[in-house]
Amino acid sequence: MHVDAVESAGIDAAIRLRDEGLDPNDVQELELGVSLDDFTDEAVQDPRKFDLASRVRCVADEERDRIFPNQFPAVLRTRLKGGELREARVSHSRGGPENSLSDGQLETKFHVNAGRVLAEERVGGLWETLGSLGEAESVGEVARLARIGG
């Protein structure tokens, strides 16, 4: 599964800076948000991620706070080792009406999130069942597949 399709506005901001030529090795300091998946045992044992994470700090942003929760924006500011400051703002997180997901990205997001609490075979069955919900006579199959622990 290709997880980068479901990353947050903060990650979208990092991708924007990378696409503009930012080299992580040049980063002295970052201000960035993180997600739950950034705290897995595997992620924290990656020396490159650990090194970069040691240069990250989280701070409040007045504009972000003003528009939350109507939007889920992110601001990524970085100071490079040479002193240069760079910033990327993403006002509309991926998946919202202003920045919608493709069908493939939506399916990936569904699998990643539902997979946190359901077995993969049930996630796949639930996705297929939801896709044909318009023709269903009831929502019983959806309820059965979505039931946690059952």
Structure description:
- The protein has helices at residues 9-19, 41-44, 47-53, 62-67, 103-114, 120-131, 140-146, and strands at residues 27-31, 56-57, 74-80, 85-90.
- Strand 3 and strand 4 form a beta hairpin.
- Helix 5 crosses helix 6.
- The chain has seven helices and four strands.
- The protein has a four-stranded mixed sheet.
- The protein starts with 8 loop residues before the first helix and ends with a helix.
- 39% of the residues lie in helices and 13% in strands.
- The protein folds into two domains: 3-90, no CATH class; 115-146, no CATH class.
- It has 150 residues and is of the alpha+beta class.
- Mean pLDDT is 81; it is low at 1-7.
Question: Would you spell out the secondary-structure blueprint of this structure?
Answer:
Layout: H1 9-19, E1 27-31, H2 41-44, H3 47-53, E2 56-57, H4 62-67, E3 74-80, E4 85-90, H5 103-114, H6 120-131, H7 140-146
Parallel strand pairs: 1-2
Antiparallel strand pairs: 1-3, 3-4
Helix pairs in contact: 5-6, 6-7
What is the overall silhouette?
A: elongated
* Total count of domains: 2
Helical percent range?
25-40%
Strand content: 5-15%
